[in-house]
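We append the chain.
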Amino acid sequence: MRSFGPDDRDLLRSDAARLYEEIVAEGGIKEGDPRIAADRPAFDLLIGLGLVSPDREAGTFHAVDPGAVQSRVAAPLGQEGARLLDESSQWAQAFGELAQVWRKAPETLRGPFTVVHDAAIDPFIAGLVAECEDEMLTAQPQTGRERKSIDAATVRDTALLERGMRIRTLYQHSARRHAITRKYVARVTDRGAEVRTLDEFFNRMIIIDRRTAVIPVLDHRRSAMAVREPSIVAYLADIFERTWERARPFTMSRESSTMSGIAGEQRAMTIRMLIEGHADPVSAKRLGVSARTYAGYVADLKEAYEADTRFQLGYTMGQLGVSGNEHHDQPGQGRKKE
């Protein structure tokens, strides 16, 4: 039996589903029906799945109960998934044995720093996480991560939590509006992880057991450095702790007071970005939002301060002494219209 992939599934949910509904409603479809030629890929998929069966004598095709077909398609996928999980476990064990050799090597041989590039980064981090014995601290700026990477992180991190380890993660406030990230947070917090968000920009960082820190390599977007030098790791962990104390808990509920405070913090940071004269792409990145969303923040400030241009906005805020560093548990209202 042929295998079916994501493209087939998408086709089944769209064109093939509509054609199937028509075949069911009409009690069948003639061999020469123009709809077959008009949507041949969808029809061929229905035939391949066994959802449509030919009646050669009558020259028609009839719909088949999906319940009778599902197991033939889904069961092999489940078996393949189990095989891949077992294979993944075997590979992890093999690499784990080599990792023991690496850890036992003298520090002078492996050094306090390791740089990894491109496709080697994710497996390298996965190996570090698999060896975690106490706690993992992570800082994840911006929300533009791919679904694939977040799905992999969900599997990796839930496995860590189920081993009894702890996870604390920092995001920017914009992560609260990112559906994929919210699903990840729901999964890991349900297993005991702690997640908080902050208005400030920070660099990506992972700290394992306060012994190894993974940070980006400057000017190399697809490179990462693992740091094992105790003083540097302790310094990075201290930065994380200080940032953690200023952050707000990321909960799945949308309490009005929390969301109001977050809106105020994002508004204040937008003001600081404008005052400091950053270009829009830079400001958007530091807020962890798209350029379009950032433009919306600026437009809201113009409306609040009755300004038609950014120059007028800057002048008005200057006259009012607005700096973006004010207390902002509640978002500012700007200059009220008379």
Q: What stands out?
A: The mean pLDDT is 83.
